[in-house]
Design brief:
With about 500 residues, this protein is mainly α. The chain has a domain of about 230 residues. About 60% of the residues lie in helices and about 5% in strands. It is built from 21 helices and five strands. Strand 3 and strand 4 form a beta hairpin. Helix 6 runs parallel beside helix 18, helix 16 crosses helix 18 and helix 17 runs antiparallel to helix 18.
Length: about 500
């Protein structure tokens, strides 16, 4: 009876109901009709070409770590919606790194499946990150709207690209980190190993996932209050041991994913673009790509290719009026929307636009600014700390945000608005942390005015998402309707006449 009472406790019931609400809402924003439009846009040309190579067993060098494209291929393999298309047509995909002409009737249901699925499931992960921060299901639900109704994330994450799976694994790593930090107990070597695996998964999709490696030192120092260590020597010993377990977790999963990548590629692509070394070609000719003995040689070949490829990426030229690239500091306000695709019709023009929800974007920016004010106040003016746990998490995610943006500012290659998605999610978490920190007393007092204000805010967020949703879902707009959505000139929204 006690077990049943615990299972169906009021708090647990609320959590289940709220989880269903988050999943239901994000299903309609992120997953429903994910295969629309039935046309390629932006970098899908590259990623689908790579996925098809996996399906046919053609080796290719990767500009990114392979996990994201493995999932794109897996979606096509599981759903296989293009069985009606001849193999000769699909074979053309393996002869280039950029597909220009897709066969008539090609379905995107397979290649977009996991990207959209992970983007959808990220909503519930985000909800539980907020919940573990505060243990308040009501505010966690309301602030989940920042992710659920964010137009730019929706547009990009539903496509056969890498950001959907990338953000999912980043959020998983963050969720586990927050859970461990809030858990009032000593952290074991297994905890660090699991965190390492999750960080390894983020890096295995895109190298920028390495930012999550900074979760390790923040977890370690949060762990010290449960260790009882006073000597520096003891601390150094512990950080080395636990650091090794963390690194081992990352290395194991990273190596495993690359091993899968190598094992699938049995023959070289007929494309000078990939430039496999003679050693790699010899390994393939002998059918030894699955032999662990040659793993190091193949990995070195791929890493060299990645480094050389990035050197050839053009630099950002912000002087060009039609340049889609944008400066990292411009991302904070959603500058430089990108018209991924457009199509004229009788009802107007259909747009697939990378366009932000300005309410979520600016709330995230507010979270960053307020976090910096709190930290500066503490360091410079020695202001008292109201809640040590919340303040520590504010310090953590502010640091992650600053480090990521500092790295982006040093990169000279052209970059785009979607490169801000990782710090954007950090800014959402910061907005929630700061809210809980500032209004802690009112939250504990269950202030009706506070909750009413939050509900109104959620309605505004959802309404703004709906207003800009035609740009996210490829719905027709007249020129007049489009121009009503140009709220700021720096967005660079341009109607097609």
């Amino acid at each position: 009876m006690n077990f049943i009472k615990k299972l169906f406790s009021r708090k647990r019931t609320i959590l289940i109901i709220y989880s269903i609400i988050v999943l239901a809402a994000s299903y309609f924003t992120y997953f429903k009709n994910y295969d629309y439009p039935p046309s390629v846009f932006w970098d899908e040309n590259y990623h689908i070409a790579s996925a098809q190579k996996y399906l046919i067993g053609v080796m290719f060098m990767e500009t990114h770590p392979p996990l994201g494209k493995l999932f794109i291929a897996l979606g096509e393999y599981i759903i296989h919606p293009n069985d009606n298309i001849s193999q000769s047509e699909l074979l053309k995909f393996t002869q280039t790194d950029y597909i220009k002409d897709f066969p008539a009737g090609y379905s995107f249901a397979g290649v977009r499946f996991f990207s959209a699925l992970f983007a959808w499931l990220s909503a519930i992960v985000f909800f539980y990150i907020l919940y573990f921060v505060s243990k308040n299901p009501h505010t966690s639900l309301l602030f989940s709207s920042l992710y659920v109704f964010e137009n730019a994330l929706i547009t990009h994450s539903r496509a056969a690209m890498l950001e959907g799976s990338h953000l999912f694994f980043i959020l998983l790593a963050v969720l586990y980190f927050v859970y461990l930090v809030q858990k009032q107990s000593r952290k074991t070597w297994l905890n660090y190993f699991i965190l390492g695996i999750l960080v390894g998964l983020t890096i295995s999709v895109k190298a920028t996932g390495a930012i999550t490696a900074f979760l390790f030192p923040f977890l370690f120092f949060a762990d010290q209050k449960h260790q009882g260590l006073t000597l520096m020597l003891g601390i150094c010993k512990k950080i080395i041991i636990k650091g090794l377990f963390f690194a081992a977790g990352s290395a194991v999963i990273f190596s495993l994913i690359w091993y899968i990548h190598f094992s699938i590629g049995k023959v070289a692509a007929n494309d000078k673009f990939y430039k496999a070394s003679e050693k790699y070609k010899e390994i393939m000719s002998k059918g030894l790509t699955s032999d662990p003995k040659y793993f190091g040689a193949m990995l070195k070949d791929n890493l060299v290719f990645m480094a050389n490829y990035n050197k050839g990426v053009p630099k950002l030229d912000v002087c060009k009026p039609d340049e889609n690239g944008s400066h990292p500091l411009a991302w904070l306000v959603g500058k430089k929307s990108i018209n991924y695709r457009w199509e004229k019709g009788d009802e107007g023009v259909r747009y697939m636009y990378l366009q932000v929800n300005p309410i979520t974007w600016f709330l995230g920016l507010a979270g960053i600014i307020l976090s910096l004010i709190l930290l500066i106040g503490r360091v410079v003016f020695k202001t008292p700390v109201k809640n040590k746990n919340l303040f520590y998490l504010i310090t953590t995610f502010t640091t992650l945000y600053i480090v990521y943006m500092a790295i982006m500012l040093r990169i000279e290659r052209v970059m785009y608005l979607y490169h801000y998605f990782i710090p954007l999610v950090f800014s959402f978490i910061l907005a929630y942390l700061v809210f809980n920190y500032i209004f802690e007393d009112k939250i504990l007092a269950k202030s009706k005015k506070l909750y009413l204000g939050l509900i109104i805010l959620v309605v505004i967020i959802a309404g703004t998402y709906k207003f800009f949703s035609p740009l996210s879902y490829y719905q027709p707009l007249t020129t007049e309707q489009f121009e009503k959505r140009i709220w700021f000139g720096f967005w660079k929204l341009k109607p097609i006449e």
